[in-house]
Amino acid sequence: MPLQSDSDNQSDSNNPLDLPSGENLDRDARALYDALNQLIRVHQFRDRDRICGYDLSVAQCYALETLVHQGPLRLQGLASEMYLDKSTASRVVDALVRKGHVDRVADPVDRRAALIRPTVQGEALYQTIRADLIAEERAMLEGLTPDMRQAALTLIQQLTQSAQRRCGPGPGTLSAVEDET
Q: Are 116 and 102 in contact (CB under 8 A)?
């Protein structure tokens, strides 16, 4: 077998197996950024168009979804879950209260604090919106094999967990000494 020079060890190929791992990782990071950016844009615009038909903004729908899934939360908890500051979350909640989709009730642990919870009307609206969006997801998945669907789901879940570990809690998270009311 002939010896290879250093220049022979460098690859001009686009084959990922020929690239050094650092170059692979950089290339993959750029491709992931582009792919996720496009997916998020499509979903955000799709969600905006679909949800606006129900007289909700995307943020209002995310807040309603969070409350349906998590149960009643204090404003700071909702803000943290949504990666919003408290004042922005407050405006979102105020709009949902005016529309009758959530209400504020006294926190049984601390009666000075309020919990935000979905109303029956709000929960029903969320379930309708969710069913519409899931029907669209189903249509997107129809052309994929079961193995591809499972691999995509696993990848998205792992990327989400990795992002949550890197990003930490949402910007609305309180320090131990701040008041949540």
A: yes
